[in-house]
Design a protein that fits this description.
8-stranded mixed beta sheet; alpha+beta; Structural Genomics Hypothetical 15.5 Kd Protein In mrcA-pckA Intergenic Region, Chain A; about 200 residues
Amino acid sequence: MTIIAKLAVTLEDMEPPVKRRLEVPFDIRLDRLHQVLQAAFGWTDSHLWQITAGDVGWGIPDPDWGDGPLDGRKATLYDVIEDTGAKTLVYHYDFGDGWEHKIKVTGITDGGAGEIYPHLVDGEGRGPPEDVGGPWGYGEFLEAIADPNHEEHESWIEWGPPDFNPNDASIEDLQHNVRRLAQRWRPRQKKKATPE
């Protein structure tokens, strides 16, 4: 039986709100949790990231930068919660745009029999486009695409995703992306040796 963590994840400083509820293995490595969050929010994994608990951070260390984060490939969600006592983590994505996702652990429970994890339960709000300029730039983007008389309307429409609707999270598509990760990470059954 898999022990799972229930997570409520909110992209901070967003209007309309962008939220996801996830179920992940409690022993998920942090580099894999990063991949789950990318899939659940519709990000393209094009920028650096870090998960923090208090003032401790995990990510992918740069060997040329000795003062970087701890290795997220060597720490699990369980380790972080056990070692720090944190019930809330922050997932930082794209340090230039400054996206911050608050991750609240809302429960620890047994996974369902036969279920594979991670699993995107539900969510609201579409994730912003990459490189839009963080929450401030996203607000300007939404204002410009909604107003045909806005001086930047045409350029933002041309730059952004076609028919962008901030309220349409396309949760089924995001669930499919998370499910693909779960299937890829699923433990493989060992083949039984055939008697000779």
